[in-house]
Amino acid sequence: MPGPTAPRAKRALRVLAAIQVFLLLASLFAPIPIAAADPSPDPSAPATSAEASPSATPESTLDPSPVPTPDSSPTPAPEATSAPTTAPTVAPAAAPTISSDKADYAPGELVTLAGSNWYAGETVHIYVNDSVGSTWSRNVDVVADAGGGIADQFSLPNWFVATYSVVATGSVSGSAVATFTDAIATSLYLIDSVSPSVVGQSVTFTATVTYAQSGAGHTSGDPVTEGTVVFGEDGNANCGGGGFILHQSAQTPNASGQVTFTTSSLTAGSHFIRACYNGTGGSTGTSNSNSALTLVVNACSAPSITIQPTGQSITYGADATFTVAASGSPAPSVLWQVDSGSGFTSTGVTTATLTLIKPAVSLSGNSYRAVFTNSCGSATSSAATLTVTPKTVTITPDSGQSKVYGAADPTLTFTHSALGGSDTDSVFTGALSRAIGENVGAYAIDLGTLSAGGNYTLVLAATPVTFAITPKTVTIKANDQTKTLGNTFTFSGTEFTVSVGTLVGTDAISSVTLTSLGAAAGAAVGSYPIVPSAAVFGSGLASNYAITYANGNLQVVYSTAACLGSAGHTILQPINEDGSSVFRQGSTVPAKFRVCDALGNSIGTAGLVVSFRLVQVTNGTITFVDEAVDSTTPDSAFRWSSSDQQWIFNISTKSLSKNKTYYYQITLNDGTTIDFHFGLK
Known about the structure:
Elements: H1 5-29, E1 59-62, E2 97-100, E3 110-116, E4 123-130, E5 136-143, E6 150-155, E7 163-170, E8 174-181, E9 186-192, E10 197-198, E11 203-211, E12 228-233, E13 245-251, E14 258-263, E15 269-278, E16 289-298, E17 301-307, E18 312-315, E19 320-323, E20 325-329, E21 333-339, E22 344-346, E23 353-356, E24 367-374, E25 377-380, E26 384-389, E27 391-397, E28 402-404, E29 414-416, E30 433-434, E31 441-446, E32 456-460, E33 466-470, E34 472-478, E35 481-484, E36 496-500, E37 508-515, E38 526-539, E39 545-550, E40 552-557, E41 570-572, E42 582-583, E43 588-594, E44 609-619, E45 621-628, E46 639-641, E47 646-652, E48 660-668, E49 673-680
């Protein structure tokens, strides 16, 4: 049977249970104490490990289903699942507590719970649940240590939830509650503008805050533009604790998620610079993040020239390069200067090497130096001189250049050796020239006024090239001449013309040798060539011309003067010379004529008459004909009458018509003609 103390123990347990229920209900409506975050949590703790008392029996459940809409009301804790084997004997001095090391966590982050004022050795049941319908929960029993403290560690699920409630229920002490959130995780990236730096050098630190995961309308990697960032030195990861030096107070990130801090007041030595982002927390806010770097600040030293520039001598078309170097901390900047004769001025070049691209000869004699500068001072190099000599270019006149005597000189052409750099033929001015002279011959070509400017020296090719003046072509033609049979024709030498081409300037031909077989007195009638040759120049040189000769014609003809007392070389009676004769149709009309030589001798040489033709008939309208003439004698041509020393032809008019006029032509062997006409009635 149970002893008398058994009923009392049962009543005590019922009273204790009632007290626990009361405390639980009171905690649900009372402010929830949340312990301050541990200023220096161990970041190396694994995210999936949990630390509790050796007797803890954790139970965590995860629902992989989609996260439901958050429910702000906490889930009541279940009753304790175990009781201590031995009743606690030390009463706590105050009400029990439970709290988290941080008020806000990132999804998947390690949570550390801690409590105090519990009965030593008491079993405490810890129940953690979210506010969205138990998508994730945790049940675990822990045993209070000798000081009444309890502890538990676990990792949150790796997705965004919202608010978590914690209920700790002891078998003797009652209950305590707490809450925390899992805000969106952030990442902070810290860089400096220069490392290492030197004393007095400006350094800019840039902190960039981004979302480390997606949630609440944000995508991982997006810039964070809420919360604040502080910059400092030393201290703990939260930019606090002993030894922390605040360099810049809290600033809100810009649209790029960045906050900058610029300083030039860091002392020589090593500086551990921190940037801490303080998130907005809460169920839809951002979590804290931080980063740090070490910047070494070296002591300052003025520039000192270590390599002096040296003078440069080049030929135009090449580049000139000056090199200089200097030491100093911070690394000094450099600026090249040039003195063109009026003192040193800036070139604008800020590199240790100054390269002049194909400097002109006009820059020869310029001096160049470099000035190095840093925050500790400056140093100037020695000056180096540039020497640029003109580039020699060989001019080779084109061969075969010439002109015809008397023509204007053409522009002389040439080729040349390579120019400097990217120069083109546009650098050439002036022109080549030649030796003086206008007569036919060869003339040396020289540089004349040709120039390529001050950057070049022009020289002629070693092999001379000449310019040729060639003879001008002209044709001298003997003038045609006529002489009377029996005369001698004497040439004066001027019976010519320049039929092709012209003589140049004041050049003149005074005479030409002219010969002809027809010039002699005994030459028979006919045509004889006049042959010109050996032109003699009164002014100018015959060698300036390529002369060709063209023959003329000497015609030997019968005299047109009186012949044996009658008119010569015309129709004789009975036919009137003026054409007024009219004869009866059917009658015979004798046609007579004489031709004499220069001495008046009537010529009756056979073959004198070449032809006799009726050439025209008129009767109001002229009719041109070419018909043989009818004769009343057996002779069909003119016959020579030695007794009358004349030529005669008896024209028969029987076949002709009356009341018409008939025109006749006698052609002689000297090429002349005798024309006459008469009428018939």
